[in-house]
Amino acid sequence: MGRWGRFARFAGLSAALSVGLGLLGWPLTTRWAGAPGIPGMMLGCAISFVAAVAAGLMVAVMSGETPMDRMKRALLAMLVRLGVVVVLGTLAVVDGQVATTPLLIWMAVAYSALLPLEVRFALV
């Protein structure tokens, strides 16, 4: 499978995991933060998904012929991912249209859940 096929599989698995987290988190967030917390949960999962796909695109575009190239690519992708999460998360918090606590908690949960997929994609 080529790098774009691997990227498509990575993006599909990331999307499935993000949706699964949302489905799992729906009753937990409703019980904990009420109905107003649901948009924050969904946005937190979506931000982490967008960041993972941005990092995955970087991995797909960059060369990884040697083990050192693959390691550099993985580290750079993690920095891109962190940057996307910080920027989009900050914009969402400053905007103030969603509950901040569920947003930040689910952004962190989804970030942590998607990270192993990204590392595996970057290093293989």
Q: Topology, pairings included?
A:
Layout: H1 3-33, H2 37-61, H3 67-95, H4 100-123
Helix pairs in contact: 1-2, 1-4, 2-3, 2-4, 3-4
Could you describe the 3D structure shown?
With 124 residues, the protein is mostly helical. The chain has one domain (3-123). It is built from 4 helices and no strands. The longest helix has 31 residues, at 3-33. The N and C termini lie close together (11 Å).
Number of helices: 4
**Helix content, binned percent:** over 70%
Could you give a short account of the major beta sheet? none
Q: Determine the oligomeric state from the structure.
A: single chain
Features:
124 residues; mainly alpha; 88% helix
Short account of what is shown:
With 124 residues, the chain is mainly α.
